[in-house]
């Protein structure tokens, strides 16, 4: 089932300049709306990603149109719900490019759906900003592809960096077999030696698995395991967390930024206590120091989102959508219009943009632009997020 939404764009709660759109794309008349295409997993197992992403895009876009649009032109959001299915993603992106004739594509909730459409956007030469985590999206660099969240490789590095401070060297991996889990597992295996980490156990689980006791029992019986890292997203990590508690594990459990929403804590319940994970500062917005340069951005977005969708409803995933929208806005400003190649070049030359994920500085060799310091190490304490000092 698809959902098509046509709204416009406003970045409320953040300081915005006027967006000058001097020259329309040759494909459109001068008074035609700017077309923002999106494909997100609003339903299905990855809906905890796509739902806040779509709500964010709709919310900010609608408000701008209410205030007159962009330089007198409306901005239409054309969206299709992939339910996390890669085949649907290909179909919908083909439609966005060929029938809807969008000027940019913002979306792709998961690594799998994002990777499935990259050949289409590259061939069409339309700028694409993904909201998914896999490093393979931007490494190697693809000319027309950018992304907003921290990568799975960065997650491994941040986790192992934290382990160094706890004198942990012998680690067990348990990973989902989907696109993100498989990719993060590979990245963790690759960077572990750099941090003096030895992977002493390596287990996996499928997307439909409802119990990981067998895999975790093998890990528990492996001699010398000092910590467990779970690479995955969706319900799997919550099940792993519950099973770890049931089996009486006494070693630290680390999750990825793929669970960086309140939904994970709700699903895992009391078993989530003490779990650590790297995540964007958005989850601890009000707990950041007053002089933290990222604080106004994340506090502003959190307040704006929760005023509409309820207290405690904000997640890092909606923040990825906001960052994608802001990056496109900045690129259009710099390009002086929406001509695809000019916007692509401007995205690549983004410098010092402070978003919900951190400070972004891109280049021809880096279509993400985030350093490891953009990640914050968090711990779940008393059912909420806490900064690890």
Structure write-up:
- This protein is α/β, with parallel strands linked by helices.
- It folds into two domains: 34-150 and 298-374, Response regulator (Rossmann fold, 3-Layer(aba) Sandwich); 152-246, Response regulator (Rossmann fold), CATH 3.40.50.2300.
- Helices cover 37% and strands 16% of the residues.
- It has helices at 47-66, 86-98, 111-124, 152-165, 179-191, 213-220, 235-246, 262-268, 295-309, 316-335, 340-348, and strands at residues 34-40, 75-81, 104-107, 128-130, 145-147, 170-176, 198-205, 227-231, 253-254, 276-279, 353-354, 359-360, 376-381, 384-387.
- Mean pLDDT is 90; it is low at 1-26.
- Residues 1-29 form the signal peptide.
Tags for this entry?
389 residues, alpha/beta, Rossmann fold, 5-stranded parallel beta sheet, 4-stranded parallel beta sheet, 11 helices, 14 strands
Summing up helix and strand content along with how strands pair, one would put the structural category as alpha/beta
N-C termini distance? 45 Å
In DSSP terms, counting alpha (H) and pi (I) runs of 4 or more, how many helices? Answer: 11
| Top-tier CATH class of the largest domain | Alpha Beta
| CATH arch. level architecture of the largest domain | 3-Layer(aba) Sandwich
Q: How much of the residues is beta strand, in percent?
A: 15-25%
Q: What composes the largest sheet?
A: 5 strands, parallel
DSSP E strands, number: 14
Quote the average pLDDT. Answer: 90
Order of helices and strands: EHEHEHEEHEHEHEHEHEHHHEEEE
Q: What is the assigned CATH homologous superfamily of the largest domain?
A: Response regulator
Rg calc = 20 Å
pLDDT below 50 for ≥5 consecutive residues: which ranges? Answer: 1-26
In one word, what is the shape?
globular
Number of domains: 2
In order across it, which strands form the biggest sheet?
2-1-3-4-5
């Amino acid at each position: 089932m698809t959902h098509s939404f046509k709204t416009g764009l406003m970045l409320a709660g953040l300081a915005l300049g006027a967006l000058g759109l001097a020259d329309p794309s040759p494909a459109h008349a001068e008074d035609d709306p700017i077309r923002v295409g999106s494909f997100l997993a609003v339903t299905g197992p990855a809906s905890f990603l796509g739902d806040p992403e779509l709500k964010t895009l709709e919310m900010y876009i609608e408000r701008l149109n209410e205030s007159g649009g962009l330089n007198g032109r409306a901005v239409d959001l054309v969206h299709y719900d992939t339910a996390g299915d890669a085949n649907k993603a290909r179909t919908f992106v083909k439609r966005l490019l060929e029938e809807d004739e969008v000027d940019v594509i913002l979306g792709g909730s998961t690594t799998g759906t994002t990777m499935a459409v990259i050949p289409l956007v590259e061939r069409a030469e339309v700028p694409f900003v993904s909201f998914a985590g896999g490093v393979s999206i931007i490494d190697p660099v693809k000319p027309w592809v950018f992304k907003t969240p921290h990568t799975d490789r960065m997650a491994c590095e941040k986790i192992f960096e934290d382990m160094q401070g706890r004198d942990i060297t012998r680690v067990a991996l348990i990973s989902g077999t989907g696109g993100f889990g498989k990719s993060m597992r590979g990245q963790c295996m690759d960077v572990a030696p750099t941090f003096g980490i030895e992977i002493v156990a390596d287990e996996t689980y499928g997307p439909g698995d409802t119990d990981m006791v067998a895999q975790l029992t093998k890990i528990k019986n492996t001699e010398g395991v000092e910590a467990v890292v779970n690479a995955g997203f969706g319900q799997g990590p919550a099940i792993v967390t519950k099973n770890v508690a049931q089996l009486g594990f006494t070693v630290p459990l680390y999750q990825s930024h793929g669970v960086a929403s309140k939904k994970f804590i709700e699903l895992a319940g009391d078993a989530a206590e003490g779990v650590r994970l790297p995540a964007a500062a958005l989850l601890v917005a009000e707990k950041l120091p007053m002089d933290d340069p990222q604080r106004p951005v994340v506090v502003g977005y959190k307040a704006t989102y929760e005023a509409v969708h309820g207290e405690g409803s904000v997640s890092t995933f909606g923040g990825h959508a906001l960052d994608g929208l802001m990056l496109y806005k900045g690129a259009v400003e710099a390009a002086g219009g929406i001509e695809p190649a000019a916007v692509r070049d401007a995205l690549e030359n983004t410098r010092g943009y402070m978003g919900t994920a951190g400070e972004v500085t891109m280049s021809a060799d880096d279509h993400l632009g985030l350093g490891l310091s953009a990640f914050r190490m968090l711990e779940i304490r008393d059912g909420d997020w806490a900064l690890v000092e």
